Amino acid sequence: xxxxxxxxxxxxxxxxxxxxxxxxxxxxxxxxxxxxxxxxxxxxxxxxxxxxxxxxxxxxxxxxxxxxxxxxxxxxxxxxxxxxxxxxxxxxxxxxxxxxxxxxxxxxxxxxxxxxxxxxxxxxxxxxxxxxxxxxxxxxxxxxxxxxxxxxxxxxxxxxxxxxxxxxxxxxxxxxxxxxxxxxxxxxxxxxxxxxxxxxxxxxxxxxxxxxxxxxxxxxxxxxxxxxxxxxxxxxxxxxxxxxxxx
Length: 247
What we know:
Distance between the termini: 35 Å
Number of strands: 7
Order of helices and strands: EHEHEHEHEHHEHHHE
Structural class: alpha/beta
Strand content: 15-25%
Helix content: 40-55%
CATH architecture: 3-Layer(aba) Sandwich
Shape: globular
Radius of gyration: 17 Å
CATH superfamily: NAD(P)-binding Rossmann-like Domain
Number of domains: 1
CATH class: Alpha Beta
């Protein structure tokens, strides 16, 4: 039997990159998936890929930083799907720049999407999970939240905050059988990293013992582990998937 048979998973930021890979991985393992992204076009595209695998999928366009939008979407999702067993908070943005030049808007956009978004989405679905006394919540952080990075103080703050959020939720929800964990990806080949200059890529590769960038599939595999039965007794943890970068 597939690991996630009869499970309903909600994946935010699922329109591309890591979120898409996680959504497809979950579907391949038997889950029905709610695809959430900022645009209806991307959500529908990935939902169609999931349906092609023979699984049920829903597509929602949601700004996770907007409380009213999240609440409305969560109510509709729970009404249509009936339950949510797995939640992956993956939605994230970058607005890079040196601290002295960073605008308030660039700080707020990153923190509101990456950190406040996870808070709003988790809050919206946690009541149903608590009532069911079961659930898996997986937050996609970053190695940048562990070690920082010049020009990314907003992104680093959001991802470090997500780790503290993960551990606090893990303690709050454990008594009801809900696990909450984080994944901290290293440098993964996505649309974000494709914009890096070649000299920067070469410098980054020197910091990675395995000598290569990761793939979105590597993060999807880690998410499947945390969502599946093998991680029954794992909560409050940060799983780094980074080629050994921060060991």
